[in-house]
Design goal:
Layout lengths: L5 E6 L2 H10 L3 E4 L12 H10 L4 E4 L11 H16 L4 E4 L10 H11 L4 E3 L9 H11 L3 E4 L10 H11 L4 E4 L8 H8 L3 E4 L2 E5 L21 E5 L1 H14 L1
Parallel strand pairs: 1-2, 1-8, 2-3, 3-4, 4-5, 5-6, 6-7
Antiparallel strand pairs: 9-10
Main location: cytoplasm
Pfam family, one: CutC
InterPro entries: CutC-like, CutC-like_dom_sf
Length: 251
């Protein structure tokens, strides 16, 4: 483990961004809709986060939830979002796209990478849905992605640990491999020691109750699986600090 390990915190609010920085996160991945795995945040959120933190902010470019096979109209949305996020201070971008047969969509990714220059780009967990991770990794390297976020094509980084280790060995430093997915205080040391990764990705969130005094419990704003209206999840300074301490002790 190199001494330059870095924790990337996935955040969807200004409060979480500030807490993550206070706890020692070295970079933010800024999203909306974390229940759907992260979608493109608003320009307003990016601007206010940038006003309140000093660490780099990488912005998710993902127009909708679901799969990573995009229509021409969705691609146009992604192009526009890249342009807007660059102009509003994004330090990097996070994106990905697949073909219908589960390969990295090299043609589309090349186009999006060109639009994103000169910002560094992370290929997100669309990778965990590819049909051949060995081939997919070489494609990402050849395209020029700086980083891959992956759970090792499994439900969590701990379950996907054997593949993450193999990907890091395959990469040989040509691209950074960043484990993410279900990382917490109980499994981080095992993931770092077992993979050799120098970066990791997590949300480090805790739930807290809404400050609302009047509550209409008969109404739900989203689908039945959505978050409760009177509960909030935010990055927890103590959890971020704990994860950073574990990483330091693992070096």
């Amino acid at each position: 483990m190199a001494e330059s390990f870095l924790m990337e915190a996935c955040v969807d609010s200004v409060e979480s961004a500030v807490n993550a920085e206070r706890g020692g996160a070295g970079r933010l991945e800024l999203c909306s809709s974390l229940l759907e795995g992260g979608l493109t945040p608003s320009q307003g959120l990016l601007q206010v986060v940038k006003q309140n933190v000093k660490i780099p902010v990488y912005v998710m470019i993902r127009p909708r939830g679901g799969d990573f096979l995009y229509s021409d109209q969705e691609v146009e949305v992604m192009r526009k979002d890249i342009e807007l996020m660059k102009s509003h201070g994004a330090d990097g971008l996070v994106l990905g796209a697949l073909t219908e047969d589960g390969q990295v969509d090299a043609e589309l990714c090349m186009e999006l990478l060109a639009a994103a220059r000169p910002l560094p780009i992370t290929f997100h967990r669309a990778f965990d849905m590819v049909n051949d991770p060995v081939v997919a990794l070489e494609t990402l390297i050849s395209l020029g992605f700086q980083r891959l976020l992956t759970s090792g094509c499994d439900n969590s980084a701990l379950e996907g640990l054997p593949l993450i280790k193999r990907l890091i060995e395959q990469a040989k430093g040509r691209i950074a491999i960043m484990p993410g997915g279900g990382i917490n205080e109980r499994n981080l040391q095992r993931i770092l020691e077992g993979s050799g990764a120098e970066e990791f990705h997590c949300s480090a969130r805790s739930s807290r109750d809404s400050a609302m005094k009047f509550r209409n419990t008969c109404v739900t704003m989203g689908a039945t699986f959505s978050a409760p209206e009177y509960g909030l999840k935010v990055a927890d300074v103590r959890k971020v600090r704990t994860l950073n301490a574990i990483a330091r002790n693992t070096m």
